[in-house]
C-alpha cells in the first residue's frame, strides 16, 4: 500500500479495562499529525463484558469462540459508524501477555474485519517485536512522540496512560525521530484500573469507581501498599511490561477491608507505583500528561499530584481527547506499518532493533 502524504486512518482500541470499543480518525502520514477526525464509542453490555472477562488469560487453541464473536461484532459495528477511512488499525483484545514466555495474545482477525468493512486493516502489531526479543508492549510511545511534536514541546515530558495497566512514556521531543537514541523510554508502571474495576465488579456489581467517589471516603491500608511496592517488578529496570492480572492478588489482600478502604488502598497502590517508576526517567519531565480512563478518577489524580514532583494534568489541557488517544495511536501505527516505518525500538519494548510490527490485510475483490 503506497502512502505519500496524510491519509484518514481509523484506529480501534478495546482495552483490558473491558469497558468498550473506542474508534477514532487521525489524519497523518505516519510521522506528522495533520489533524484529528471523528470518533465513536460502543460500550460492552454486561453479558459481553462477562464473556470477555471469562476469556482473560487464555491462549490460542483454547475455546474462545464466544469472545471472538463479541470482539468481531463490537468492532465491526463501531468502525462502520465512521466513513471514508483509507486504512484501519485494529489492535484486538489482549487476553494474555507473558513477555519472555508465551508472548502476547490479542484476540481478533484483521483479515475478516477488512473483508467486512472493505478497507485495508493493519493488525497483529506485537508479534514482530516479540520475535526480535521485545516485550511487545507498550506500543503507544511512538504516537506519544508525535503528539509531543504536535504540541510543540521543547523540553522532556511524559504521557501516563491509566488503562487496565499503567504505562509511562518519557519523551525528548528535540530528537528527530521516535526511534532515535534517547528519544523515548517507556514501561508499564504497575496495575491501573484493572484491580480497582475487578474489586468494584465483584463487590458492588459496578464496572468502576466513578470519579473515585468511593475511594475518597476510605483510608488506604499502608501495610498492604508497602507489601505491594516491595514486589520484584518495581526493582527491575525498563523496558518492562505486565499482564493485567499480574497483580491480581492485590485485590484479594483487600478482602478484609471495607469497600471504601479497599478502593482507597488500590488507588494508593496505583499512584505510588507510578512514583516508583519516575527515577527511571533520564531527566525529570516538565509535565506528566494523563490519558486513559483513570484520569476521570479524581481521587487517583489527587493522589498522583501528591506523589509526583512535577505537574500532573489530563491531556485535555493540551487540547487532546484522552478517551480516544489509544485508538488514535493504532491509527498512527497502522500508517507507519503501511509505510514500513518502525513502530517500536529498544527504548520502548527492549527489542533488539527498531522494528515495524504489523500485518496488512486487504479486502478481497
Textual characterization of the structure:
This protein is α/β, with parallel strands linked by helices and about 375 residues long. Helices cover about 35% and strands about 20% of the residues. It contains 13 helices and 12 strands. It has helices spanning about 45-55, 65-80, 110-115, 125-130, 140-150, 195-205, 215, 220-230, 250-255, 260-275, 300-305, 325-340, 345-350, and strands at about 5-15, 20-30, 35-45, 85-100, 105, 120-125, 155-160, 165-170, 185-190, 290, 310-315, 360. The strands form 2 sheets. Strands 1, 2, 3, 4, 5, 6 and 12 form a 7-stranded mixed β-sheet that branches. It has a 5-stranded mixed β-sheet with strand order 9-8-7-10-11, with helices on both faces. α2 packs parallel to α3. The model has no long low-confidence stretch (mean pLDDT about 95).
SSE diagram, text form:
Elements: E1 7-14, E2 20-28, E3 33-43, H1 46-55, H2 65-80, E4 87-98, E5 103-107, H3 110-117, E6 121-123, H4 127-131, H5 141-150, E7 157-162, E8 165-171, E9 184-191, H6 193-204, H7 213-216, H8 222-229, H9 249-253, H10 259-277, E10 288-291, H11 298-307, E11 312-314, H12 325-339, H13 346-349, E12 359-361
Helix pairs in contact: 2-3, 5-12, 6-10, 8-10, 10-11
Amino acid at each position: 500500500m503506497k502512502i505519500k502524504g496524510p491519509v484518514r486512518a481509523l484506529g480501534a482500541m478495546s482495552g483490558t479495562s473491558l469497558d468498550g470499543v473506542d474508534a477514532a480518525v487521525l489524519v497523518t502520514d505516519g510521522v506528522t499529525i495533520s489533524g484529528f477526525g471523528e470518533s465513536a464509542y460502543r460500550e460492552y453490555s454486561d453479558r459481553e463484558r462477562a464473556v470477555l472477562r471469562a476469556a482473560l488469560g487464555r491462549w490460542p487453541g483454547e475455546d474462545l469462540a464466544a469472545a471472538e464473536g463479541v470482539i468481531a461484532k463490537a468492532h465491526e459495528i463501531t468502525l462502520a459508524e465512521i466513513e471514508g477511512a483509507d486504512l484501519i488499525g485494529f489492535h484486538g483484545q489482549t487476553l494474555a501477555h507473558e513477555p519472555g514466555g508465551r508472548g502476547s495474545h490479542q484476540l481478533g482477525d484483521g483479515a475478516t474485519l477488512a473483508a467486512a468493512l472493505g478497507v485495508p486493516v493493519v493488525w497483529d502489531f506485537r508479534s514482530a517485536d516479540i520475535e526480535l526479543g521485545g516485550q511487545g508492549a507498550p506500543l503507544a510511545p511512538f504516537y506519544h512522540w508525535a503528539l509531543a511534536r504536535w504540541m510543540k514541546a521543547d523540553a522532556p515530558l511524559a504521557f501516563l496512560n491509566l488503562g487496565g495497566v499503567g504505562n509511562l512514556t518519557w519523551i525528548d521531543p528535540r530528537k528527530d525521530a521516535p526511534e532515535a537514541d534517547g528519544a523515548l523510554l517507556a514501561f508499564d508502571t504497575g496495575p491501573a484500573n484493572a484491580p480497582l474495576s475487578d474489586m468494584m465488579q465483584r463487590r458492588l456489581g459496578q464496572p468502576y469507581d466513578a470519579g473515585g467517589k468511593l475511594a475518597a471516603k476510605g483510608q488506604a491500608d499502608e501495610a498492604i501498599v508497602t507489601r505491594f511496592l516491595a514486589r520484584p517488578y518495581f526493582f527491575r529496570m525498563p523496558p518492562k511490561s505486565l499482564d493485567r492480572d499480574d497483580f491480581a492478588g492485590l485485590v484479594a489482600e483487600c478482602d478484609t477491608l471495607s469497600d471504601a478502604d479497599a478502593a482507597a488502598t488500590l488507588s494508593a497502590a496505583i499512584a505510588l507505583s507510578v512514583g516508583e517508576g519516575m527515577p527511571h526517567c533520564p531527566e525529570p519531565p516538565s509535565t506528566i500528561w494523563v490519558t486513559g480512563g483513570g484520569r476521570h478518577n479524581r481521587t487517583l489524580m489527587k493522589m498522583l499530584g501528591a506523589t509526583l514532583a512535577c505537574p500532573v494534568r489530563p491531556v485535555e489541557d493540551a487540547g487532546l481527547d484522552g478517551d480516544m488517544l489509544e485508538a488514535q495511536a493504532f491509527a498512527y501505527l497502522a500508517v507507519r506499518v503501511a509505510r514500513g516505518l518502525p513502530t517500536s525500538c529498544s527504548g520502548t519494548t527492549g527489542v533488539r532493533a527498531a522494528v515495524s510490527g504489523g500485518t496488512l490485510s486487504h479486502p478481497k475483490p
